[in-house]
Design brief:
Layout: H1 2-16, E1 35-36, H2 40-47, H3 71-78, E2 85-88, E3 93-94, E4 104-106, H4 147-152, E5 160-164, E6 169-174, E7 177-179, E8 182-185, E9 187-192, H5 220-225, E10 232-236, E11 242-243, E12 265-268, H6 279-290, E13 293-298, E14 303-306, E15 326-328, E16 338-339
């Protein structure tokens, strides 16, 4: 009884202090082998995983932040009448704490990559597998090919994501590929999920904004619980040569201030009626109202990243949304709006 009262008091204090429910975690299950993202075992592990501290920007409640003065122009530059779309793209693999480390040859951004070796398993999934629903749908071999074939062949961004929950470390790769000589990638980033530490100024990551991908990807386990409790990531076709906290990097030559910066944060309007949407879509829409979404990379306009999990249902309803259903918010940081001179 005393333990129950103590736990009840702790939860009540957390709520009074405005801490996210994600801060109250179950014990981490023991992990002895690699676990693929779209399995019940992965759900149990992820439910117990604290992804960044509760005060991290990804976990921030932005529902009360003021609207950016240039919100309407920024929305218009992307397309206020364009429908929201989504990619079933960002898969990942969970590894045990003793996963063997292997070298990965970094081809394009060695000076903006974190050094290895890395705990990359043989069954590392490649972005857009197995459902292949995004603008790079033709970049991978046709559905039905073996994982080894997809690891070796195809074009596109080919993100590879490795999560080590026990050590609280995230490894992300851009254009990952298996070869006869071993793994290679264009870029490699390592993130401490226990820390708010960001990448160095002007460093890219597997995302053009210098941000991690996994913490902003919609997962089945959180949709099944009824709400996505973190910021999402999305892409737009044209961005500005600037970035705003927590982004660290840009990928554009354009300086028009009506264009969004990397890291620009958008929020679903509070008056948008989410009743009538299927449960998994509602979980995403609730998250977009409370935590919003970051401009993370250049790509198709208004495209959200969702894990390619066959258990997710009703996501097509998200295309009922339009750009005009969102607003840009003012972020709170001394880093706001860095750009070249």
């Amino acid at each position: 009884m005393r333990i129950l009262l103590t736990l009840t008091l702790f939860v009540a204090v957390c709520l009074l202090l405005g801490l996210s429910a994600i801060a109250v975690q179950s014990p981490q299950p023991k992990i002895t082998r690699t676990v693929m993202f779209d399995t019940p075992e992965a759900d149990r592990i992820l439910t117990a995983l604290q992804v960044f501290p509760p005060d991290n920007p990804w976990n921030q409640d932005i529902s009360a932040l003021p609207v950016h003065a240039n919100s309407s122009a920024i929305i218009a530059s992307i397309g206020k009448d364009k429908t929201i779309d989504f990619n079933l793209d960002m898969n990942f693999v969970i590894v045990p704490p003793n996963q063997p480390r292997v070298p990965v040859k970094i081809l394009d951004y060695p000076n903006e990559s974190d050094p290895g070796p890395y705990p990359v398993p043989d069954n590392l999934p490649i972005e857009n597998w197995p459902l292949q629903r995004n603008e790079d749908g033709g970049a991978l071999p046709k559905p039905g090919g073996t994982l080894d074939t997809i690891q070796r062949h195809g074009t596109g961004d080919r993100h590879g994501i490795v999560v080590d929950p026990v050590n609280g470390v995230l490894y992300e790769f851009y254009q990952a590929r298996k070869t006869d000589a071993g793994w290679q990638a264009a870029q490699a980033s390592i993130f401490d999920l226990k820390s708010n530490r960001m990448r160095p100024e002007r460093w890219t990551s597997a995302d053009a904004a210098g941000l991690p991908v996994f913490p902003a990807t919609v997962r089945y386990d959180e949709c099944a619980r009824g709400m996505v409790t973190h910021a999402l990531r999305f892409t737009v076709r044209r961005t500005r040569r600037a970035y705003v906290y927590p982004a660290r990097h840009w990928a554009s030559k354009l300086t028009d201030e009506s264009l969004p910066r990397m890291g620009e944060r958008f929020r679903l309007r509070q008056d948008f009626d989410i009743t009538g949407f299927p449960p998994h879509a509602q979980a995403i829409l609730k998250g977009l109202k409370k935590h919003g979404m970051f401009v993370a990379d250049n790509g198709g306009d208004w495209r959200l990243s969702i894990a390619p999990d066959r258990r997710l249902k009703g996501l097509e309803s998200l295309t009922r949304l339009k750009g005009s259903d969102f607003e840009v918010v003012e972020t709170e940081s001394p880093n706001a709006g860095r750009k070249t001179q």
